[in-house]
Protein 1
Amino acid sequence: MDDAELLFRISRGDEGSFKKFYERFAPRVFRYALTLVRDRYLAEEVVQETMVTVWKSAKNFRGHSQVSTWVFGIARNHARSLLRRAPEIAEEPEGLEERGAEPVDQGERVRKALEKLPALEREVVVLAFYQGVSYREIAEILGIPEGTVKSRMFRARKHLRELLGLESPGPGERGDDAEV
Amino acid sequence: MMRKCEEIAELLPWYPWGLSPAEAAEVVLHLFRCPQCREEFSQIQALRKAVSEALDDLPGPSPGVWEEVLLRTNGLPLGRLEMGSEFLGLSLGLSWRGKSAPLFVELSLFGERVPIFEFTGGVG
């Protein structure tokens, strides 16, 4: 059953569909939230708030965008609301990786590198590379022009490569850091 | 008009799933004749794989999160009485929502549950 069908059933109060929807989206929302709030407990709070909003607002989904775009947009709003209440969290990264110890495997190295990316770049990388969201949908979720999404991705790739000690940039890489 | 490498490179992170059919066609044609952009694409694929694997390693939310969600929406199920068959049935249930314990009645039609009545009795 596709996401939109599940959401339609949730709007009619179908508990079974809500559970399926939770199982499908909660891990994705959790990992996305973790890259925003960088604290496991706060990320779980974002999941909880997002799912309660989905249950209450499923009937308002009009199908103009992908269900995932709608869900990540809700999660982002809850995460930003949490960060406004506790702004010190945004400055103290700790969620993706334990602090201090040197990374021992590839996964740890990549998570450390992601952690070091500027928040706006990290968000685009995670949405595109991990969540499979198109640049148009990312623009919708973040409320920014599509060109800005692409330029953030450019800079994020460049920074990630540098942080991971990979090859020098290819043909499309820009030398400047200007945002479109 | 053909796009330049810089413009194609902006689309590469979203090729093929995050582009319009026209954009995807343009990218694939460009990749076919441009070894430099093919190399760039291969690096992007490697980066995407590394990010996906790194985040897949992270655990998901703890099971308690689902229970909290239930408490704030449907309520934690306390008991359910089912009548009829899997094709047509009626269920009577009671759940726990923190400050209330709603009693609900659902009609089951070919495995699909349709809520037809809910009585919320406050106990708090």
Protein 2
Amino acid sequence: MLAFALKRLALALLVALTVSIISFSLLRLSGDLAQALAGPSATAADVEAVRKAYGLDQPLWVQYLAWARQALHGDLGTSFFFKEPVAAMIAARLPVTMTLGVSALLFALLVALPLGILAALKPNSWVDRLALTLSVVGQALPSFWFALMLMILFGLKLRWLPISGTASWKSFVMPAIALGYYGMPTFMRLTRAGMMEVLASDYIRTARAKGLRAPAILLKHALRNAIVPVVAVAAVQLGFFLGGSIVIESVFALHGVGYLGWESISRADFPVVQAIVLVLALFYIVLTLLADLLNAFLDPRIRVG
Amino acid sequence: MIGEPILEVEGLDVVIPLLAGTLRPVRDLAFAVARGETFCIVGESGCGKSLTALALMNLLPRRARRSARRLRFAGTDLARLDERRMADLRGDRIAMIFQEPMTALNPAYTIGNQLEEAMLRHRRVSRAEARDRAIFLLEKVGITAASSRLRQYPHQLSGGLRQRVMIAMALMCGPELIIADEPTTALDVTIQAQILHLLAALQREFRMAVILITHDLGIVARVADRVAVMYAGQIVETGAVADIFARPMHPYTQGLLRCIPVPGRTRRGAHLGSIPGLVPSLMGELAGCGFRNRCVYASPPCAAGGIGLVPLSPQRAYRCLLPPRECAANAAAAAAP
């Protein structure tokens, strides 16, 4: 297990290094930085002065090392637009995005797992058809439109939930449903397919031949094996929820990282965009590592050589 | 059959409704198994052997339906038992060993967990007691360092070891009847012999009845007390093992026996027998004899009506229109060099 974990960790670090290089290059490739920093009215001499002051005349690898050292110390540069440290800006927005992402994931799993299990137990039954319909609709609906429909129904007509802001947990209910519903079909189909495959396997027949009761067969013997791929995808999906929540964050005016990213792109605030790409990519890497370790925990064939 | 029967089967049918018609893989089966005896069901692939085993355990695939005039186990009517009560019997008084040891164990749990579970389900014992029983049985089935094996996962064991674990698992509650469905087919020949000896020894020690399902007449000759030969979902011949091997009556049994080389009798380089043709479709009703298309003695009457079992003695019966004397003559002619 330790060897496996170390191998995965080394791999994750390698990916993180690659991502940091890409993220660093983003800013350098987006045009002449010195020109952008000096402003449109700067003379050629000003631009050269800025280039010297920021170290932009150094070779790229020197610049990268300097940037990487700063990033490791938590300094992700300064926003062109707000003239504030980017790290602080992201840190202030992160809790909103995390809350949204995690609750969207929980919603998706809470709907998908029971539905997938029931559908697998009775293929072609009404539960199965309902599950299939829900998942097709979930994949076909544009999330912004679904979010607007939720707002009209629960926010305006029924007045159960606030339609924007982050005042209380209630503000996160609709965004989490809108975001989570988009990821639900993947989990549902994986659970259904996994359960159907496992339920037809020889060791389930062995469990029945032992006289075990249905709950023990289903939860202990079947679900444990069917859930392995779902865990892996759930971790990746959480990464997607964290990074891909731009639309939902803007519809519900949630000031999270996604919203910040979208604003920064339209303001050409490259240091912020660069930092967000880096931070979200690191989340992805950590989550994937976590999924690998969880998988190893669930499947002894990975864990014990 | 000598002694009190533990299992009595009469008129056992399995039907599987399909879009194209109704599959009838097991037709009107009747047999009985005595306490402590080994009863072999032999036949080629697709003749309904495995479905018979699953039907006895009520573990048939979802779409398959079972019906029986009589299905009694130690005085209990299995045909009328609901799934709850049947599950109480399974793994406790009737246990089953499957063909594929590689896939029959759950990859996610240790050997120990899966062994103990079989006992914890049926007996009021602590986990420690169940573990002691598991260690005792693993040693019985010839696994060394049993207590450390308990912590291993199925993928860490070879096929032969896994089948030994499966046998130990079947023995956890001390069953009165074990149904073994091709328990050695997936194993190396040397391991096959070991597993068969093991089963026979355990059977004597614990006085269990064993229903052994196999396509291998060599196995039948070594371990069986009595045999039923199945063909196209029916029993075509049944009797004591020595009697069947010495005087096979049904043309199919005679064909099967011709397929085995006998050291010292079969000439080197001589052609081994084979039975031409294929098993008939098991769709719908069978008109006449199921074997007639592959039978060298077939005549027009073989195609008409159902053909019943002809009893020769309380122990012995065969399903053929040929009179006993002619069957015996055919067998003698075929055996002549």
Protein 3
Amino acid sequence: MLLYIMQRLMQSIGVLLAVSVAVFLAVYAVGNPVDLLISPEATQAERQQMIARLGLDQPVWSQYLTFLWNALHGDLGTSFVHGQPALSLIVSRMPATFELVVCALLLASLIGIPIGLWVGLNDGSFGSRAVMTGSILGYSIPSFWKGMVLILVLAVWLNWLPASGRGETVPVLGIPLSFLTLDGLRHLTMPVINLAIPNIALMIRLTAAGASEAVHQDYVKFARAKGVRNQRIVRRHILRNILIPIVTVLGVEFGSLIAFSTITETVFAWPGMGKLLITSIYQLDRPVVVAYVLLVTFIFVMVNLLVDFTYAALDPRVKLTERMS
Amino acid sequence: MTGQDKTIPVLEIRGLQTVFHDAQGAWPAINGLDLTLHKGEVLGLVGESGSGKSVAGFSVLGLIDPPGEITNGEVLFNGRDLRKLDEESLRQLRGASLSMIFQDPLTTLNPVLTIGEQMVEAIAEHTRGATPDLRRRCAEGLARVGITSPAERLDQYPHELSGGMRQRVVIAIAMLNRPDLIIADEPTTALDVTIQGQIIAEMQELQRESGAALIWITHDLGVVAELADRIAVMYAGDIVETGSTDDVLDRPRHPYTRGLLNSVPGDTAAGEPLRQIEGSAPPLSRRPAGCPFSPRCDRASDMCLDQPPPPEADANGRVWRCYHPLPEEEAA
């Protein structure tokens, strides 16, 4: 098992290296940050000095190697704009994004899985077909539009919820969290709903597909022939089996929501990582963009590792074994 | 036989009809089935694929899912009509006094639950309150079907056991609550021949020991010859001939039974083509109006095409549905 984890971590280093090359080149191609960073009134000498200080006078491969060398020493570069280490800048925004994503996925599971079960077990009924059709809307409406409609209705017209910001936070173990204060909760509600809607739809469809297939399996019929109560058949026999794909998708969704909650964070001015990324891209703040992508890659790898462990815990047929070469 | 006739049969099916719905209408898979089974009796229910024998088994347990539906008839189990019971009363009977063994042991057990959990729930769902020594009872159940180190098996998952072992587990589960009636739906078809023999022998012993009545659904006449007291031959949703195993196998009255017996490969000399019944069983939607076997029967007359033949019986309790039965003298 330990060997398995080691192997996975080694693989993730390879992935990180490949991603770092790609993102470094991409950021290099986007544009020259100097034009944005230096005021037009600066003299040529000041300009040269600035370029040299940021290391932008070096050729790209040399810049990359310097970056790599520093990265190995735990330094992912310093933000051009903020003058702070890029990593700590991102990490300081992480709790806000994590809180948003965890709440959204929790909401999606709590609503989506029970509804999906009901739909799957009542396959073909009018209600289940209506839910299935409605769920298509749930993930095809673009999230920026959904966000704006939410703001329009709940904040502007009804004036129930605040439209932007994080509200009052309470530090827990040094991490500021919104959901513990009433004001924070009010701020959290709309972005969470916005982020959760497509995932509720996804959970419904996934659970329904699994349940409607599982219900016709021999083991379900045999459980019925044993006289097992319906409630227990659904809870132990069916749910246990369909949880495996659900957990996988939840893992993938967790990763991509962390990485791409950008739109929701922008619409609701939620001070998370995604909003930082967008601002940094506009300002051509290369170190922040590179560090962001690498961190998100790392989170993805870790989440997948976690999903694999959950897999093995849920399905006794799955054994995590290291590859023999 | 005569002594038992006065007691209530374990199972008495009268005029059972189970249909399957599709866009075109309702098609009977079981059409007016009659069947009686006494305590401790073993009945071999024989027929080709699609003859409705499995549907008959599931109909008794009330486990017919849409688009299927039981539309007619009575299923008297120890004198109570199962079709009149509500779902909860039926559930209490299933797995307790009325149990079933499925065909494919690889799919019957839930892959993600331990053998122990799947056995324990079979008892726990039929008892009120906390039951002590559930595990011990389950381990004993496994030991009875010849599984070694049963206590350790309880913590294993189905995929850790071979097919034969899994079918033993399924049989053990079916026997756990000492049922009055066991319906075994081709329980050895998915197993290889040596395991098949062992399981049949074990099943026979368990059945004698417990005194349960047993319906053994199969297409294998060899298996029934070993096991059954009586045989019922099914064709296109109805029983075409019943009688004692010896009578039916040695002196068939229905042309279809004879056709089945002739098709047993063991009777054909080496090098000869295997014999078979010409044609194939009609699909649900294209059952003939008269005798369902008439299109494939060499004895069929105009009468056979018109009206399905009524049951006829002889003094030995043999029943057949045929206008032109084979003469009694014609022994195989």
